[in-house]
Task: structure prediction
Amino acid sequence: EVFAAMKLNPLIVSAGLALALLSTQALAAEPETVYLSSLNLSPIVQGWGEPQADKAVTRKPMSIGGKTFERGLGTHTDSLVRLQLKGGSEKFMAFVGVDDAATSDQATITFRVVGDGKTLWKSPGIKRGQAARKVEVDVKGVKTLLLLADSAAGDISFGHADWADAKFLVTGERPAIVGAPHEDAVILTPKPPR
Result:
């Protein structure tokens, strides 16, 4: 009976195949969430301490303006996270601020997201106790992404910088944290006169 119905109604068969194809494409395009803290953090450069996955730089639970976060990257000013996005990332999202565990209000931190040399997002100066600032940046087509946390006055003391709940929406290859690009050595000293 099923085969008879298929012979009588080829449009039903075509519609069924089209729906199956569309649902397969929808599943393939579903973005994966990749947390920044799940990547290899060892290439990160910062002014004090070690970068921490899912904790503040002090190794305490991450907290900004009284709100705790289970996931994220704890760094210290001045810090640089250089990522290769490999064409697979669609969006970067986070909440940034000064961790509550800093024992002084001295630090003022500016956070920046830079894609292929262009500033995509920048915070005003943030101090301890202030609420986290939301970051949501479209990174489609970006090859190199920099996450920077800089001390506003050039003094890195108590600059406990959190990238809380930091994550990428990825539809292709996962991003990777990388070191500084290799530069060929250049001799700057002029040759002595003969």
Observations:
- The helical segments are 2-8, 10-29.
- Residues 1-6, 21-27 have pLDDT under 50 and may be disordered.
